[in-house]
Design brief:
The structure is a homotetramer.
Chain A lengths: L4 H9 L5 E3 L2 E3 L9 H14 L5 H4 E3 L6 E3 L8 H18 L8 H20 L3 H15 L3 E4 L22 E6 L2 E12 L6 E4 L14 E6 L5 E5 L22 E12 L3 E4 L5 H37 L8 H23 L2 E2 L5 E2 L2 H11 L2 H13 L1 H4 L6 H4 L5 H8 L6 H16 L13 H10 L3 H12 L8 H5 L1
Chain lengths: ~475, ~475, ~475, ~475
């Protein structure tokens, strides 16, 4: 039986309170102003799984048991499986307008680690994959929402982990015991943690032999002893604390996870020092992640199209007047979506059975994910008018003020719909383009400059130069002056 | 004697409290959280006027009296005068990081109305220019900060003023008396009003003969009887109410000005029904305004370069690594600045002596003002890293929390500078790119689609087709099929 | 047995001479200056089919007979089949630097007509698919190079076929006989005809009931009685007639095909008046064609990267200095390639078994195909320097001039390679970017504006507006003002 | 009296034949197929100087004599003077569709050398400016068309002049005699030489003390003893030799100038070893040149708009359908024009009286000159359709072929105008966008990467970082890690 929204909320309520924001401890994430919205976003995935219209996308059959499970708990072994990852994400954005990290990063992490534990076990005779299988079976059965975390605090960006003044700036094992490991450090800017029950930890980078203590992967309950979670700020996030329409019902959060000598039992550890496979984790993770996030920004872009349509009409203008702009927006959305699908189709199955997308095309997609949505937002603001651009309309409190609220309502009215609908559409547009619904498409999942390096690395310059030489009828060798000097 | 910051602040304190935000009346704009920042921004113009380094830019000699005045109270009659308008604005952004509308729109308005009253008086034998001269002389002497307002509430965008369900959605005269006029309506999204002492009102559009009641221009004290001002929201504006570095010391505001049967004495009225000149106001205003705002976004872009340099270093990376991105940012800044200057140089003096920039190039510049800064912001975010992109770091309260503040400070530390400096640079970058420092470069001063129409209107298609015909050796007439059909 | 280059050339020589250029009849396309290069391009596909390294890509197993055939004669029924179409095209560009239309349009046409004849036969009980099968079996066995033709002369673009002053501007049946049909009209700008043995004709547009005579598809021998072929000009095509390196050994041609009452026997006719399926032809053709052409421009872009590498070195500069530009070029190439693959993966099998790509993503890809290569070319020119940009170096004759040739050779020498290699690399770059190797990526396979319309048509505006409404909490209906008026 | 077209042509005929192309010596540049078009282009400037409509732009009053002169022989000492340089160039493109280098580079050279000789004479007590004055007085009186040349052959781009295997790859003095200097070397890719009577030589780069022999400036008659000129190829230049409309009547050429021990008498030498001023030549030249060339590409872009209008109509479509594309084209044209004007207005007068534009904005303009026209061309091709894109229509010979010419004419007919006009408009579009009318906007006047370096060099990073620090409230010093290491 697929878990319901109510079961999910009850599970969140039962967790211990280790999340903070603005100096305040959050005792119930499902009701606290700072977190209830991210919880609502994730709860909508459960609604969809029980909705006939969306059920086939939101549920799947377990490769292990054949049982019906939530799709985001399952394995992705075929092109169809991974394409459905993208499709599910795009649809989730339609429901929430923003990111639902808990239906995403943990899912990708479990699949990537399925491949990597396969490789590690083969070389070292370890039993990591067995441990992972056990955890997955439980998650599938329970329908666990599991966030995922890669990004370390990192410290000085030009120094290696062992060169840092404070070794904790990269999460590391401080002790390896017979029954588990003890870790210290932090994972920063982690999405959707407040809506998750567990968190999957991956190493933050490829590591060398001197960095074995940093090559670590495991999964923890969100409320594990020793873990302190502080939610970060976001644009306009103080509006979460107010009533009215100045913010939305859904949303996303990002948190600092700070591990202070946390003990992880062996059955939840999937890498513990096998440094040469840390790079594989990053490679597989980014290939699949960057292929799929194109669907996320597409989904949000779709909602921006919808918001633009509403704003045009609320301003009294036919949305057809903006057809050219909407076409560019739609083109942008489908570029990151379609190119991601292309990366998937050019990928193939890993020895473990897990599907890995094509790295070059996936990283290329990241470049677009880090640029096109900015144009889409700009166009959404251009269509909506000045009321949208800087959120330029009085607050919900002013709207209702007995002294001058009536005047405000009178002057906000424009098209055929109510003034309230106009201000709601404006707030939505603001939230999507310059507010707390803005997802991290620039640096989320890594920076575009890193992606550019991968695109370059996979370009076979000498091969292409040879093709050119043959077509031009050049027969002598023409080597690079720089290469000569070595 | 040029007025000091202190004199300016004292004058603001003396005004009557007709400004509201979030349902609260603001009794002292110089200290209230919602307005003290915009006041601080404007106060820095007074500092500059007394600073030997900036004095020659911030002061000028009066064309009327020959006295030394604040430059933004003066007339712009030469190419140098108007170029100095642009230079002053760019510099102001360097001091504040954001818009200072009170040193800007009123200044442009008084100059534009100098030209238009000249034309009206010539045709109708009125004495508008005399009235204006008297007001200017007083403003020059006093050093008045005067905001300016064009944008009406507008109502349904596809209907004309007289077709609107509620005629008040465009500001209009409801009574014309011997000693003055009575007006009702609203001007929306007006910048810097809380820091201004007076407000210059211009008609919001070109008008036809049926619209005479809407063709009205005047100047009012900010606290005039019958005027209610409600400040609008801006991204992250609730941070204004908190202590610490999560917002800046400077800033801009935008307000709804609602006129409820306000009486304006004749000496402050400069247009009262001369509808055929309303279009001239818009034409001259936009030509000069859109030539000059390129300097504004350039100035903010300069600060974004500075913020990027700080962030790179604070992350432990040499800013030289981002030279390509900084070069694009600098190119963007100087494009809107330089093209605006080009519009000025291609302009010329109006019969009244006032310099009017070239319309086509000025409107072209608006297109860039509505697009390039978005790329500049994106690059600022790309350089700064994830901490910048969505403001992804805990709040000032969390930073100081006794339970976990120390951990946060430990994990935020990266480059050679202090963790505090890093978070301050990050907040600045966030504020500039996605926070309340974001100016309205898309719709401020009108929409880019309107600018595109002007660019097209000034393109002589038939002339260019004739050049092409001659070069191609075509001798027959080739007319447009559409034109044929008429 | 796969046909050899020699067999292919012999077959071309045996055709009757119905091709003209510059007022001259071409008696042997394999040796005439105007056509030998396009023949050489296509001959290289036969080389590849016999080369162990490329064999698996250039040959396939027949779905009909199980025999090994040239891939471009086969059916495309799986995602792999159509992805291999794209891969083959990209590789062909590596061999030729330009288009090889004869390995392409006929191939797509036979597949598209397989689907459409399936639909027509089902509705009308005709036997078109049987006829087509017979033709395909023969082509597979023989290894026929078959061009394809859609674009009619069209006449006045705003008039329908039956409204045209001259009905021949769209190819049409002028007689329907028991044993076949007689057609008149022209297909313009048809690629690779001079290198082909047969030509597959498709209707040029979707047609209505009044246009039945234009809804016609068939395949003809290139030298069929009544068909006159005139090759069009291309940039710098007069260089084809000269000796030396000022042009390349490979190339593409485009021709006017003029049918003057040509009789087509029934066995070669696959549509003859079934107007309602003409639209299907266009729909299926463009979906697959526009998905695949991304690979073509990618392949040419790869050669531009190679040419840029050679030019940098020939100028004495390390190509690494241009890494940023090469990365953009590579990104552009892989965008059109990867997005095309995405369109394929999002497609599916038609009832006839033929794979049809996703229309929206395929048309989106066309927009990129019509824009990105222009940037790639610009970068190739930027890297190569002034010698490349306008072909700015003396001719082969001047190079060898006894009076001053030595001086030219002295001054062309720059990097470590010979002056000859430098000028060859420069000519290649010129040819690729501004010469006769430039393929028609703007209008080839239809115009980008048509593609934009498809992208828009497939965007569900009302659905997206509903998602936006739900997120914004808007409950009232908000309809489009324009829609209201109907 | 201003010289007439006839006088100009007669002067060209009288020159000795030292120009070659395709192995052929050109005895009369005014009639030879390879050069008559560039001569026609320049002759149109003389027509304009005698046309009442254009006279005020094409003539000026001499600063020396007060006489009426051709504007391109005069000094540019005021902002108006240099703005008129830009305006004249834009107009010349309207007449010719292409570059007229002889009305341009020599003009700029004489002005730049006026400033530089002023500086040299001041330091060294030389009399270079006097010599130059004498030459200018003569040129003004005669109305001399004078080309200009900077670009050396350069050899290996990573080696300095003295490190080159062959010192001649940079033009240099091989002997300094009492009565003059002897030079050897080459200037490559020099525009409009065939239409000029004299050539102004500038040093190709800034030079160091070891490079004194390369720091040389002088002016020579085009047919000076020892100078061999070979015209380079251009796209489709062989069409120059054919009759009919496949090319235009106007055009531009680029040549290799090879100096083989040429003696220059002192009175024509303006720099001879003063290496430290070679950099000033480059600085002043590029500042003014790059400010002005924006007008050139604007002028050609205007003709592309005209060609697009004609093509739309000739295709039977209203040009209004392409308003959005035309607006972008017009915006592009006016961007390079207006930004160049901005660079001029931000410049100022040199001590010698000559106006020097602002370097940063001028170089920024070069970046746009090297990018925007590519988009303008692409749009011109997009509007024109497939017939334009690759010149895809049969040749003039085929058009007139008795066997099939009639069919071609029948199928080319589309809109209301004649088929001939349609093909003429198509050839014009092809010539402008991908033919021999393409000017070198990428590398002409230097490469955009050099311009980018200047834009960066003029960006005060530390100043901007300080502004950012103050706004962010940062008080500690934050230095660049890289800078620290030194």
């Amino acid at each position: 039986m697929i878990r319901t929204r109510e079961q999910y909320l009850a599970a969140l309520k039962a967790l211990k309170p280790n999340i903070y924001k603005n100096g305040e401890q959050i005792t119930d994430v499902t009701t606290h102003a700072a977190t209830r919205r991210v919880v609502e976003s994730h709860a909508r995935a459960f609604d969809a799984a029980h909705d006939e219209k969306y059920k086939s996308l939101f549920t799947a059959k377990s490769y292990f048991t054949g049982n019906e499970i939530l799709r985001f708990n399952g394995m992705m072994k075929s092109l169809d499986d991974i394409m459905n990852n993208a499709k599910l994400k795009r649809e989730m954005y339609h429901f929430t307008g923003s990111c639902t990290g808990g239906c995403c990063v943990g899912w990708n992490s479990q699949n990537v680690m399925w491949a990597v534990t396969n490789d590690i076990d083969k070389e070292f005779g370890t039993d990591y994959q067995k441990r992972l299988e056990k955890w997955i079976l439980n998650a599938e059965e329970k329908g666990t929402v599991c966030a995922g975390a890669l990004t370390d605090a990192k410290g000085n960006r030009t120094l290696k982990p062992t060169q840092q003044a404070d070794p904790d700036v990269n999460l590391h094992m401080v002790e390896k015991r017979a029954d588990g490991i003890v870790v210290r450090g932090a994972k920063l800017m982690i999405c959707g943690v407040a809506a998750s029950e567990e968190i999957f930890i991956l190493p933050g980078s490829g590591y060398k032999d001197t960095d074995a203590e940093f090559a670590v992967s495991f999964v923890v309950p969100r409320d594990i002893e020793g873990l302190t979670i502080v939610e970060t700020m976001r644009p306009s996030d103080d509006r979460d604390y107010k009533e009215g329409w100045d913010t939305m019902e859904t949303g996303i959060t990002q948190a600092y996870l700070m591990f202070d000598n946390v003990f992880i039992p062996n059955e939840r550890v999937f890498m513990a020092g096998e440094f040469k496979y840390a790079g594989k984790v990053v490679e597989y993770f980014t290939a699949n992640y960057r292929a799929c996030i194109g669907a996320c920004v597409a989904g949000q872009g779709d909602v921006m199209i919808g918001a633009g349509v509403l704003m045009a009409r609320a301003n009294g203008i036919s949305n057809k007047k903006f057809d050219d702009k909407f076409t560019v927006m739609s083109a942008n959305n489908n570029t990151t979506y379609g190119l991601g699908i292309g990366a998937m189709a050019l990928g193939g199955a890993h020895a473990s059975g897990v599907w890995i997308s094509d790295s070059q095309i996936a990283h290329l997609n990241k470049i677009y994910v880090a640029t096109l949505p900015y144009e889409t937002k700009r166009l959404c603001q251009e269509i909506g008018g000045g009321i949208v651009e800087t959120g330029c309309t009085p607050s919900f409190q002013d709207w209702n003020d007995p002294r001058y609220g009536e005047m405000i309502r009178k002057y906000v009215k424009a098209g055929d719909c109510s003034a309230e609908s106009r201000v709601r559409a404006a707030r939505l547009s603001e939230w999507l383009t310059i507010g707390s619904g803005v997802p991290g498409c620039m640096h989320g999942g890594g920076s575009p400059d890193g992606a550019r390096m991968v695109v370059k690395a996979f370009t076979p310059f000498e091969v292409y130069a040879d093709f050119a030489k043959k077509i031009a009828g050049i027969t002598e060798a023409i080597t690079d002056p720089a290469a000569d000097k070595k």
